[in-house]
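Weekly puzzle thread! Below is a chain. First person to post its structure in token form gets bragging rights.
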Amino acid sequence: MAMSETGTKRSLFPYAVVATGIMGCFGPCALALSCAGIFFTPVSTALGVGRGVFAIYLTVMLVACAIALPFEGKLMEKKDLRVLLSAAVLCIGVPLICMSFFNEVWQFYIAGAFMGIGLAFLLVLAVPTLINRWFRKNVGFYIGLCMAFTGIGGVVFNLVGGMFIASGPDGWRMGYLAFGVLALVLALPFTLFGIRSYPGDKGLTPVGSEAAVANGEAAVAALTGPTASRAMKTLSFFALAIFAGFINLAINFYQYLPSYASSLTQYPDIVAIAATLASAAMLGQAIGKVLLGIINDKLSVYAGLGLSTGCGAVGLLVMWLVPSSVPAMLAGGFLFGVFYASATVLAPLITRTIFGTREYSTIYSRVAMVGSLCGAFAASVWGFIVDGTGFSFVFAIGIGGAVIVFLLGLLALRSGKGLADE
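Winning reply:
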């Protein structure tokens, strides 16, 4: 009977962990980040400030996220993830509720800082850390599946938030209130009851490790790889950190796709698809996350690296050179979305491939910190480039950035061979 109960636990509880990752991305992460833009105009109008001044809270959020990552990576190695991730949900849900009552822009900046601390746990660290601990097979698929729900949540909740905002002058307040409650209700039951820090806490082993041991591959079942202190002294670590930074710089051109479409005044039909182009990229992002995870599992991380950067370069090239064709533009946006997916899927998978699982969350938190810092200022950087040079030069820079990302990823993988087996 005991063996039967254990078997049931072995078959079901790891998938509760996956469900927790999905709900964390679908709920708090999407509500805080993927839906932020719909509030810019109504809130800045109500507060009597410019949209840029109000949007600074997003920069504060991402900088706070980057600063928090190294500390949170260490905490995740030592503390109960139920406590840490539930606190992270509160750090997002409670500020969203409070934002419905704010009347000064500086209050949003403070709320953004708390939300950044929560996002560091939930968006950056939780999914790859949990999946790497609980699974030894199909790791890429499950990471990609969970991360895809940030985009799916964005699609769903942007519509919900839009309805609240359209309901009246203070509709944005009800929108924030609803978002905060949703963040708590959707995620807290899972972070409290759907996870444990390690499979051993439930008397289990990672999914897939049983087969590895049976085949004499005991190393696969154990935590392997260098310590964080050793990893951070290697060339592969520095190459990987710069890789993460360049990805976050390159993919943030996504924010300017509607502006690019709107700038094509010689093609009236193209102007009409400005929002559709961004949606095509979001669809590519969601599908790309799952696809890159599957490719990592079935082929190799090298194949995923080549596909994502290739899609980025080709997508940008198509949008640049074939602006008169609506299908070509949408296809280009979709391909660029696949490249966008590499930031949250490929970066953690390459980290695992190079450095193993021994101190994964500590190592990846440092890599992700570089990416988050670059992402915090990327939109402004692209804005200055667009204003100063126009879109043609921007596309050339973006294509070059995709090539650089590929070369940096290749350097990190080649120079880190053998480290994961230590």
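Puzzle host: Confirmed. Bonus trivia for everyone else. Residues 1-9, 213-220 have pLDDT under 50 and may be disordered.
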